[in-house]
Design a protein that fits this description.
single chain, alpha/beta, six-stranded mixed β-sheet, 7 helices
Length: about 170
């Protein structure tokens, strides 16, 4: 299975079991599953030169936790988290999100400009800032060969990705 993470593995097993109930051949089902690629912005590899950088739609604490757990054992994890949905900006999931981020070795929180987030809850994070440049500067100090970076947000952060890819290219650790 090319898709990473235990949740994708569980989904694949569910598909196999359903297909068995429908009378389909296991070999045919696994053949199709072996060609499956995740949806866009689900563990999408954006950079892979000594450091692997993923873009992921994970924004709810449960999805953030599952994403980070799927990365365990493959190098240090740098989680860039952008809590920007209405519920997140109101601070409704702060405790759950901070707990989910504890699965990363380093966490960086990109604060929306207007928010009611209780920043004290994220005390374990390396940096909380509304400025992407500040976040990337701290990431740049911490990153090393073999690390993984994941940007998690309900939104595609084009400006963040442009700057992150530039930073990673400059530090290419092949």
């Amino acid at each position: 299975l090319k898709a990473h993470g235990s949740f994708n593995q569980l989904n694949a097993i569910s598909v196999v079991l359903l297909c068995r109930q429908l009378g389909l051949n296991d070999q045919d089902v696994w053949s199709v599953l072996s060609k499956y690629h995740t949806a866009d912005r689900r563990q999408t590899v954006k950079f892979n030169q000594g450091v692997i950088a993923y873009d992921d739609f994970a924004h709810h604490p449960t999805a953030v936790e599952l994403m980070l757990r799927s990365m365990k054992g493959k190098g240090r994890i740098h989680a860039i988290y952008h809590p920007a949905t209405f519920t997140q900006r109101c601070g409704k999931l702060d405790e759950e999100a901070a707990l989910a981020l504890s699965n990363a070795d380093f966490s960086y929180v990109v604060l929306p400009n207007k928010h009611q987030i209780d920043i004290k809850i994220y005390k374990r994070s390396e940096i909380l800032s509304t400025e992407m440049n500040d976040i990337l500067a701290v990431l740049g100090e911490n990153i090393q060969s073999g690390d993984q970076v994941v940007v998690m947000s309900a939104y595609y952060l084009k400006e963040m990705w442009d700057k992150l890819l530039e930073l990673l290219s400059e530090k290419a650790m092949v």
